[in-house]
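pls ignore typos typing on phone
manganese (II) ion + seq
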Amino acid sequence: MDDRATQAYHLLEETLHARNVDVAAVRTALKQQEIETPSWGYADSGTRFGVFPQSGAAVTIAEKLADAAQVHKFTGIAPLVATHVLWDLPDDAAVESVPALAASLGVRIGSINPNVFQDREYWMGSFGNRNPAARRKAVDHCLRSVEIGKQLKSGVLTLWFADGTDYPGQSDFRERKRWFQDCLHEVYAAMPDGMTMLVEYKPFEPGLYHTDIADWGMSYVFCRNLGDRARVLVDLGHHLPGTNIEHIVAFLLDEQLLGGFHFNNRKYADDDVMVGSINPYEFFLIYNELVKEELNPRGNPKVEYMVDQGFNTKKKIPGMIQTVLMIQRTYAKALCVDRVRLAEAMGNHDVVAAEQCLLDAFNVDVEPLLRRVRAEMDVPEDPLAAFLSSCYQTGIERDRGIRTGAGGLGQ
Ligand code: PSV
Ligand code: MN
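k done
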């Protein structure tokens, strides 16, 4: 750190001490942060209207892990990579190659994401399909995913279902609920002790009339019925406009049922734009709830912090670095809340002072603190600039070029 950066850090440290913030503890927490980036975020993706391949986009699992490793190398806090079984691990050979590859690149495999939505048999659903053969295929794929998880030493099985209907009368809600419960039970029973099942919800798309796990309450009920290794996954894009996501997060934390996140941001629908890019204050308020649980644990098990974004117009690796830095910055701000003053203000029904505690933390420029943390972690103080001035991006654009059929949302 140069003199100016050191001076800025000391000034900030003074301000934070005056706000009852334990800065040494904040630095430790920031160094322990671990974010999981998605393999599919490095592959070509598209919209309903087309796929626009990018030069250098990853196709193979080896390329996806190599790109993810760059994000970790420059930020120091993204050591985990989520895999999507059909897109990344089509056969046993691909699975077998992964442990050595990941280890050589300094990353670890995070969640295993089965894919029970893209095959023809799932036209009318997977676990909610009236046809037992389709349900069997979906369960068998999830059972294979559990085995892959064991092989790759992953402790997390993440389930998302595209099941739903387009019209009233098309199917029976209660019948489908029972098919779901039975299929989930079979998969849950096959999981080893150290594995957690995360169940994602989504209120719309692709079903136009209903989706089978439409909100956190439905996910919650399925998880409760399964057992204590099933928890709710909150994808920030999967909420109707105006939903108070931080309230849901706090509620689930208190029930010890918050399993993890898919970070992204929505403006209109499930847009998968960069987390915090549309509503950074909402993201801060979500992190505020998470920090409260960290400071005053009430028993919620480990939360998985996963990114679920695709970049159509941004270049993928710099987009992902920007994402990881946004998450780091937001966590840092949430760690800077004056919790002593906030508790007093709440106790006195002083609404102005209480809100001001949150606004003050949100408005802190935490960059000097982050630079100090990065220097201590031996990663570049400005990870994005450092990546952009490396030759990795130009190298992959030159060597890989533009290809089609990339393993991800665009295939
Ligand atoms: C569905 O919208 C989703 O959020 C699920 O997590 C999928 O696994 C992911 O996006 C990629 O399609
Ligand atoms: Mn998701």
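The two ends are 44 Å apart (CA to CA). Residues 113, 160, 200, 202, 235, 262, 270, 308, 409 surround alpha-D-psicofuranose (ligand 1) (CB under 6 Å). more later
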